[in-house]
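Example 319, ligand fe (ii) ion.
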Amino acid sequence: MNQLSDAEMGVGHSEFERDGCALLEGFFDPFRVDRAASAARRVLRERPREVVVDCLQSGQRTFWAQAAHPETRHFKFNDLHLLCEALRDLALDPELTAVLRALLGDAPVLCSSVSFEKGSSQPKHIDSLCMTPRTPHSLVTAWIAYEDAHPDAGPPVYYPGSHKIPLYTFNDGSHHASRDEIVDWFDYIDVQLRLRGLRARKLVARKGDVFIRHADLVHGGSPIADFGRTCGCAALHYFSAGDCVERGMDIEPLRGGYWFRRLRAPVAADPSAFGPGFPFPEESYLRRYPDVREAVETGMCPSGESHYRMYGFDEGRGV
Ligand SMILES: O=C(O)CCC(=O)C(=O)O
Ligand SMILES: [Fe+2]
């Protein structure tokens, strides 16, 4: 993370240095936030086959079109920014990207997003576990409140100062979480939080507030005390342009920064999920797997769909 002055960031720089986060109160006009939130809801209504969601009760990943109990709205909506221009516009607002640029010391690249209508119910984590930057610590998150938070709605919690905990190194030598070692990470972080006397704080934000988080700040969702309440928000993750170029990512300039043009996350859908009512996404499957495309083009395999049914699913490929 870069050194920056209070004026550059528009908030206390020393606060961000000390706490690993800063709340930018009233950063966005509530009307602007409403526009992005309703455009995102329209995507959920109109393009449910393209949206990948994680059920926050079962942990199951599906297409929104096939989610069980969608009426609970208790889901993590992945990467709506790929389908929703209004969300990209908000995420790459020039004033916001100026703040992010100052923190990253480079132009920000919007790489992923998660949106929620109910409290996120996320276990404690640091974003760099999954969104692991090429240069350690070089990731920032902007969390945008779509509504005034109610303490019973399960708003985020965070541990000010936890970004200074040295990164845990997994068995492969990286800081990227591996599924079978995540329990060790939890043990490590619990000990570190205790040793440093760091305590959880609930984020009770107002609509239009932006909460900027350091890559390595420990945070999560608080328990939802009242499921009748909503807690709409989007969390947007940014890498530095330099790291993205080094990684050969396809980045596209927009407003104050860039976004990473990529395929949505794959879903390990059972082949029986596809049929006349829910056609197999042939084109994205072929784009995702060049070896399958080649097999289809050379006549070794009739289609991506038949590849998935015969081999792909068993090989653990997603759609
Ligand atoms: O901030 C939250 O509670 C949920 C979002 C989150 O953890 C994330 O986007 O990484
Ligand atoms: Fe997170």
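Summary: The chain has two domains: 6-260, 271-312.
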